[in-house]
Amino acid sequence: MARSPLTEPRKHAAQKRSRATVDALIEATARILVTEGFEKASTNRIAETAGVSIGSLYQYFPGKEALVAAVIDRHHQEVMQVVRTALAEVASQPLEKAVRKLVAVAIEAHRIDPKLHRVLTEQIPRTGRLENVEAFNREALALFRNYLEQHRDEVRVADLDLAAFLCATAIEAVAHTAVLYRSDELTDAAFAALVDEATRLVVGYLK
Amino acid sequence: MARSPLTEPRKHAAQKRSRATVDALIEATARILVTEGFEKASTNRIAETAGVSIGSLYQYFPGKEALVAAVIDRHHQEVMQVVRTALAEVASQPLEKAVRKLVAVAIEAHRIDPKLHRVLTEQIPRTGRLENVEAFNREALALFRNYLEQHRDEVRVADLDLAAFLCATAIEAVAHTAVLYRSDELTDAAFAALVDEATRLVVGYLK
DNA sequence: GTAGAATATGAGCGATGACTCGCATTTGGT
DNA sequence: ACCAAATGCGAGTCATCGCTCATATTCTAC
Q1: Are A178 and A186 in contact (CB under 8 A)?
Q2: pLDDT band, residue B8 (cuts 50/70/90)
Q3: CB of A3 lies under 7 Å from some atom of strand D
Q4: How many Å apart are A7 CA and D10 C1'?
Q5: 46-65 on A, CB < 7 Å from strand C
Q6: Percentage of chain A with pLDDT > 90?
């Protein structure tokens, strides 16, 4: 079975009006995901919410999956921007200061759009082109590993890869769980305590 | 809108033949989830795979969600059994020995049925009665916290709740990620190194 | 101003899936 | 042996969903 040769695999870039259409569709998808959940996010509903016809939707996206993927992408861009900036800032700072900052940033990153983040992690079946939702964690891990390498003299661990994996995984999980499931308990004081302790956890291990 | 008053909310226990039917249905659901994924797990398909008619399916389960919930429950029972046993075994042991054991057990627990665990965490939309998929982590957390309380003299932390949260979250995440995404790299040697280092991470922090 | 390309529209098709209901079969008690 | 309850059956209903296509509108360039 060959691909449908009739209608071109719809994609096309935009010439202006269409840009707005595409944006509206992505935005609508994100809105529905947050307010109604993944199950309610049908293509018809997305088009309707975006104020666009289904026909137009399919002119720019091959299907629902692509819409959701676009939303995920957008969110990841925002998150990774924060993470990259933080790691650049911290590149020349000593271990403890750096780790403290990174922990704080991890929490901040999860706070960018917690509701969307939650839907993305809890309701999106990681299938097809959505399998790689966690792939961006790999980039964060690589960046962190790189920092450790630059500061090898400050760290006392046998295996850098393993250490980076442990620390990055721990930090991500703590930030994730705290923001998504303990946001109510997360006052400013609690936030500070959490950062303090998570920093101790990681720094104590690294040296 | 009241509940449908006509047909009783189907549930009923069993009288023997039906027990087998129910088991077959749960087993079929698990099998399909693992081999085909959540999307393919339609009620019709489940019934067919179980060698049972759809009518019978709906006699014991109000819907697809309930089937999946049953599978999740079964899996959680197995996992929690392992965790509970380990924590009992470890109750009177000193910190380092205890933590080492718990780390190893966390990994083992994730290895009980990795494929199912993966589908459960990645493909099941946490919605409706499936929202609480992570709820059992709370029990594990409580058990661990309890251990720490019994060994308060061995631990040097200001806030026990916070410490338990950090350690339990970190251990779970490390075990989860290692088993699900690094299983290929997880030779016996790597396993030992992982346990060593994770233990150092946690113990170093706690005292 | 006009042609043709780009963009937008939405009724409707085909597929699938959750679920019902009337009826058949089995079981256990007597 | 018999019957009422329990269990099992599966064709068929209804709703929804993803997606197409023939047509209409708008834009751009000349």
Answers
A1: yes
A2: very low
A3: no
A4: 40
A5: 51-56, 58-59
A6: 86
Whole-angstrom Cα Rg for chain A: 20
- Where do the domains of chain A lie, and which CATH numbers do they carry? 17-62 (1.10.10.60), 71-206 (1.10.357)
Q: Which amino acid is at B20?
A: A
Question: Exposed (0-12), middle (13-18) or buried (19+): which is A110, by Cβ within 10 Å?
Answer: buried
- Annotate B24-61 with DSSP letters as a single string: HHHHHHHHHHHHH-TTT--HHHHHHHHT--HHHHHHH-
Q: What is the mean pLDDT of chain A?
A: 93
Query: Which residue in the block uniquely carries the two structure tokens 């704080």?
Result: A104
pLDDT tens readout for residues B171-204? 999 999 999 999 999 999 999 999 999 999 999 9
B141 contact A CB<8A? no
Q: Is some CB atom of chain A closer than 8 A to the CB atom of B135?
A: no
Cα B166 to Cα A145, A195, A205, B7, distances in angstroms: 21, 11, 14, 48
Half-sphere exposure of A12 (CA within 13 A, CB side): 16
Chains A, B: CB contacts within 8 A come to 92
